[in-house]
């Protein structure tokens, strides 16, 4: 496909591309060819680290030949090219390195439940995206594949751990790509790359055939440019797999359908500072959050300043313990794969610090960390009892540069102290299991994106509020310098 047509298709979101395929105006193969053309043009971003073009073409051709797209028998996403994060979205037969040198030649033997749901929805998988080792970092610059560039600027990180997916979506390679979020790994890249990043509530999706990650802190979803795409993707993957340890109650209506309905007036608590020790929030971020608050108030919601309290030291200590043990799991997985003990130089230095501490973590310490997470969740929720939604920054400052959020600090706790000094409230959505969404509601004077975050127990109200903000403070025509679509007129 020629570059001009590929660029024109990039301007459409996933639902828009699927509508073209359903109308017969383009085929699934043509949509894929356009995405591959854009992928080749975006090699400098280093966002896509595993090409699966042949399997994508085979899947797209099968969709076209079945006639299901044109017969209207498929969902709102069928035929759309899609990329998988190289962590938490395994595809049998495809390389799955998880950003680790120790797993550089590992090939997945099973397809993740969530990927099966993507495929069942008709999404055409044709590649995997860059991620830091084991999702440990809120930046994407693994030594195995190298750093992913941010389409907005070569000097700032695209965030992490879903940074490869975020960069690909922000540049227009694809309209959406998968991600996962354990302490902000969908929302931080969304903020860095000017995207919509929804972390669903705990257990909204399944990690099958694996167990849950980080004692339920982590959850899978996607990076998108529009709210409706995020809702449609959530509809595609909502549910639990047989044998899951717990599940979230199913929504009464499809998430996509609820966007046409305004939520009842919400009681919104707004906080611009960080609950964790951190420098003062950047004034530009404060202005973005406050403007979002005023906008929501003008729509009819009740907004007032305040914040729930919790023991920040206890949370940071517990998060550190859970990550230490999780990284020992990575070590053991790598040992099984390699058939020998992995070497220290086969891991990132910061990961090795976590493994080293994890080797000596006692079972009672791990149990205490889980209890702490539950106790602090109850304290947080008690502080929100008179309100429905929390409105806060996603990052406390505009996107940082590289070699900031992945550096070893001597201890895991010191590592997370630095992370939380940048992310502020983000990790509390993981601790509590609440849903949270980052929206690209502002830019700096030099055009860099600023993300604003909403948190609530369930996704429906967040998506409805996000849709209202998308209409009131539109970002659709805001494109990065690295945009591969048609120029904005």
From TrEMBL:
EC number: 3.5.1.4
Reactions it catalyzes: a monocarboxylic acid amide + H2O = a monocarboxylate + NH4(+)
Amidase domain sequence ranges: 30-458
SUPFAM superfamilies: Amidase signature (AS) enzymes
Family recorded in the similarity comment: Belongs to the amidase family.
Stored PANTHER family: GLUTAMYL-TRNA(GLN) AMIDOTRANSFERASE SUBUNIT A, MITOCHONDRIAL, TRANSAMIDASE
Protein name, UniProt field: amidase
Organism from which the protein derives: Mycolicibacterium sphagni
